[in-house]
Amino acid sequence: MFGKIKSGLTKTREGVFSKINRLVTGKRKIDEELLEELEELLISGDVGVETSIHILDNIRTRVKKEKYQTSEELDSLILDEVKRLLDFDPLNLPPTKPCVILVVGVNGTGKTTSIAKLTNYYKKQGKTVLLAAADTFRAAAIEQLVTWGERLDTDVIKHHANSDPAAVVFDACSAALSRKTDVLIIDTAGRLHTKVNLMSELEKIYRIIQRQIPDAPHETILVIDAGNGQNAINQAKEFIKASKANSIFLTKLDGTAKGGVVLGIKRELGIPVRYIGVGEKADDMELFDPVEFVEGLFEKK
Amino acid sequence: MLEDLTGKLESVLRNLRGYGKLTEKNIAESLKEIRKALLEADVNYKVVKDFIQSVQDRSVGENVLKSVTPGQMIVKIVNDELIKLLGTSTTQLKSAGIPPSIIMITGLQGSGKTTFCAKLASFLQSRGRKPLLAALDVYRPAAIQQLRVLGESLKVPVYDEGIGDPVKIGFNAVSDARRKLCDTVILDTAGRLHIDEQMMRELVNVKNRVRPHEILFVADGMTGQDAVNTAKEFAEKLDYDGVVLTKMDGDTRGGAALSIRAVTGKPIKFIGTGEKADAIEQFHPDRMASRILGMGDVVSLVEKAQSSYDEEKAQKLEERLRRNEFTLEDFYDQLQQIKKMGSLESILGMIPGIGNQIRNAKVDPKAFTRTEAIINSMTLQERQQPSVLNGSRRKRIASGSGTRVQDVNQLIKQYDQMKKMIKQLKGKSLKGMRGMPFMA
């Protein structure tokens, strides 16, 4: 399983960070020119101007203070800085049942596929999972989740298309409580974070969950497309406001997109990446490990 | 749309305009700011580099520094270069000599292909064409179902064979279109990564066998630096004819639009601006450039106003305005007209100069509904003669419309202000205002 993730990530590794490798292995002194090249690489990986400057500033200070000189030493410096940015505390899931996971995001990031992967992940741990089809808006979204439910042998709580998503959530919470399900995963409709009415609909969904199960949702996962640029920071800001998003599921890392924007999200808003998606099948998911991730990115071939 | 980028460039350029004399240092600093604004807007790093270079090359020339208004000159150079980047003319869809015309829609997963297919069908329908949708996405669960539902809601026929060979489905869809006398076939293909060689080969096969007249590449408007890689790869494999940018109704700065055009040279043909079937706009590069530079997009605004404008009503209104008889009923009518034009944000974004202040204030679409509810809760007499609205009437209206008395008061205040404004305008030509609700 791990091998597959690695191969999915290879593309990422071949991008910015292997270029950094090449950049820093040539015998060069650490000078402004080198740092500028580094900035170019960071920005090309969607890390963003502000965050790149932040990383470079830290590196500059440390180069001065700790008297680094050759470009080889820069390698470990970058690794260190990026790793530090990505560090996070593990999420403790509650001892009580059910554990409620709310999945949110803009349109087309891969929420439903990610849910299939999460379902597969929890089922493999021997847990019972229930899905809620609260995307009642997009044509055939319910059918899409039901198809996954059948493939993964998991029940789906659903209403008709265009019904009130809050009602689906209400029923799903009741069902999870009475069935004593371990994990309830709620699929919501994709919504642009700028649509006031859709964001208040999400707030309502959040309130309904809270009313049914007081300390829920235990995790709100924001699904972000690795291809997204700096706009993902705005997305995260609004979804944190409306639904207290506290995890990121970074999808489509099997392409050439680098998803560097998660560095900016972590730095500005503090929510970490916990899961990554690297394919279209239910087991194409890996828990995000910053140390492994960064080391993988810098791995020399 | 593109609002953040616009805002940033506007402020940089405003500073430049202010200088009587420019030094090379002024220019360098401004260019640095412009560079940052473009990068933050997700324009590709290399594209930005080239852009800044060419603006710089043209700016340091003696002509600019010695000109009377060097600031203005730079603004003009930036504008020119921006238009050059975006392309200069609007590009239409190609069509076949003998129908049906075949349009193939491609792109990454989640870029919005299926939704765009429906929008394109609705766009063609409104122009008197008869489209047929074909479901070639046999991979994603329920994708075919999604197209069927969308087709049904638009009353557009959908051809599918369930799970099968996309090449065959495409081929058969064309024959089906001939049978049903449809003049356009829209092929909805499955989302795929540009590096997935097997899936890319499938697209090439569809292209070779079905021979579409037009291939469109759909890209998410929020895409970052990677936009260039995917657009280039698809262009190399498929040599598509045009680009569609979706999800442009969010607050994305839309740098992908600039990058894709610059790197592939392919024109952007449409942008998607919402989830409903009519949320599709043809792309006008020159208008977009002036929108980015904060000069507004008056042409699109007028077109929008015209398409939703009711000549007879406007004439009646004009007469009444002349007699200073603007009532709450007229106010209500004007609201309806604006609503027909589309979302308030998109309209405001097109007005020159206004953009910047309103841009950050979020417009609550519910405010419209509230205003409507309040007016609907009034009696006929109250609407025609708002002066009768005393405290108890206002209280009744508030509870009738589910609002607060403050909301009712606010509406009446707004109405009074408008009335005053109209009075001032009297004597000036009212003709120019026609069909331009609220543009007084």
Q: What fold name stands as the CATH topology of the largest domain in chain A? A: Rossmann fold
Indicate the proportion of strand residues of chain B: 5-15%
Count of DSSP-assigned helices of chain A:
11
Please list the strands of the largest sheet of chain B in the order they lie side by side. Answer: 3-2-4-1-5-6-7-8
Number of domains of chain B: 3
Give the C-level CATH assignment of the largest domain in chain B: Alpha Beta
Using the CA coordinates, give the radius of gyration of chain A: 21 Å
Low-confidence stretches of chain B: 353-360, 429-440
Which word captures the global form of chain A?
elongated
Overall morphology of chain B = flat
As laid out across the biggest beta sheet of chain A, the strand order is 3-2-4-1-5-6-7-8
How would you name the CATH homologous superfamily of the largest domain in chain B?
P-loop containing nucleotide triphosphate hydrolases
SS-based structural class of chain A? alpha/beta
Largest sheet of chain A: 8 strands, mixed
**How many domains of chain A?**
2
Binned, the helix content of chain A reads: 40-55%
Radius of gyration of chain B: 26 Å
